[in-house]
Amino acid sequence: MESGREVGIGKGRGDEIMSKPFRNLVDSISPERKRKIDSRTNELLREMEIRELRRALDITQEELALALEMKQSAISRIEHQSDMFISTLRSILSAMGATLKIVASFPEGDIQINQFEDVRIGQVSPTEK
Question: Among the residues of the chain, which ranges form H helices?
Fold first, then answer.
């Protein structure tokens, strides 16, 4: 590559590709499309795996394991699971300083499910006795 110029792959000698600033592309996007992009970006930021959340909070697996009185290898296994007990998830989030809320999303609106609140405070619901 010559200084200041990019040579295209598969192009003959002298055929050059001129790069354009990314800002030009962003500026050419319609305001409606920008709103959709921003909305999707915010949605993705609200959706995180436990591993991503732990890293974002700058907590190591070792620190989390210590707080939960577990081995680091158990934290690693949990982070790679796609299915777990609600109580396990609640404990992990609590160790990170968060509260678990389970929400059912319907077209008409969201409903918070509180069926699992008894588990959190160590009580058994009357139907489980």
Answer: 22-27, 31-46, 50-56, 61-68, 72-79, 86-95, 117-120
Q: Nearest-CA neighbor of 78 among 69, 65, 96, 66?
A: 65
Neighbours of 90 (CB within 10 A): 17
Please, are residues 49 and 81 in contact by the beta-carbon 8 Å criterion?
no
Question: Is the domain covering 23-128 a CATH 1.10.260.40 domain?
Answer: yes
Query: What tens digit of pLDDT does each residue of 107-124 get?
Result: 999 999 988 765 445 544
Sign of the alpha-carbon dihedral angle for 96, 59, 102, 44: positive
Residues 111 and 100: beta-carbon distance below 8 Å: no
Judging by beta carbons within 10 Å of its beta carbon (0-12, 13-18, 19+), is residue 43 exposed, middle or buried?
exposed
- Tell me the CA end-to-end span of the chain in Å, nearest whole number: 75
**Residues 79, 51: contact at Cβ < 8 Å?**
yes
Is the pTM higher than 0.70? The answer reads: no
